[in-house]
């Protein structure tokens, strides 16, 4: 049996992230961990989170997959001039720059810019925000993948959808064929992880949570 673990929006909350990873690694010897984006902004240690993710798994037999969130896109766009810099700073970018002691280095901007928007396995579809079920999977827009806030469930091309982006204390929560794992860690909630059995279709077999 193999498992995939999906971790919700981190937003600079390095301590809960370390605790959650330790909880997962204490119970399982291997697996795939999918991070669904929003590693930065608002929380106290965005730089620490990025450093940890860039370093990759500390133990063998683990695979990490990092997806891009809208906050990574905002940061990269602010530095590239595509987005208004004050807009990003007002949405948590100031805390990110403070964690670096100034400007975000080019190497970390390049890392964030290269992150993929989607990951699929045999039974699941992982994105940061959501997908438009009325548009073909290979024609999804980056805007929807990064910003959409689903309000219901759909077929999702035969897969279960797992996403973050929309925080709520009630999360992690499965609604039909969709699971939202953003439990608002940076807003006083916990950091959540959905556990999927790779051999079984459908939603998570359990949730794991870590707080401060």
From TrEMBL:
InterPro entries xrefs: Ap4A_hydrolase, Calcineurin-like_PHP, Metallo-depent_PP-like
Protein name: Serine/threonine protein phosphatase
Domain (Calcineurin-like phosphoesterase) ranges: 6-172
Source organism per UniProt: Rhizobium herbae
SUPFAM superfamilies in alphabetical order: Metallo-dependent phosphatases (SSF56300)
Superkingdom to which the source organism belongs: Bacteria
């Amino acid at each position: 049996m193999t498992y995939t673990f999906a971790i919700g929006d981190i937003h600079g909350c390095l301590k809960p992230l370390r605790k959650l990873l330790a909880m997962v690694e204490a119970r399982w010897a291997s697996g795939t961990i999918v991070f669904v984006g929003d590693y930065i902004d608002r929380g106290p240690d965005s730089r620490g989170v990025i450093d940890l993710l860039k370093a990759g798994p500390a133990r063998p037999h683990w695979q990490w997959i990092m997806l891009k969130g809208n906050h990574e896109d905002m940061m990269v766009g602010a530095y590239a001039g595509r987005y208004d810099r004050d807009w990003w700073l007002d949405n948590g970018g100031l805390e990110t720059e403070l964690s670096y002691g100034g400007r975000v280095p080019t190497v970390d901007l390049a890392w964030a810019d290269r992150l993929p928007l989607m990951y699929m396995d045999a039974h699941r579809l992982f994105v940061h925000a959501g997908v438009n079920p009325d548009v073909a999977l290979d024609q999804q827009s980056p805007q929807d993948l990064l910003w959409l806030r689903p309000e219901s469930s759909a077929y999702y091309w035969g897969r279960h959808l797992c996403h973050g982006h929309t925080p709520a204390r009630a999360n992690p929560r499965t609604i039909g064929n969709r699971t939202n794992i953003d439990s608002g860690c940076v807003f006083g909630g916990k950091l959540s992880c959905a556990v999927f059995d790779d051999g079984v279709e459908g939603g998570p077999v359990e949730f794991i949570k870590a707080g401060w």
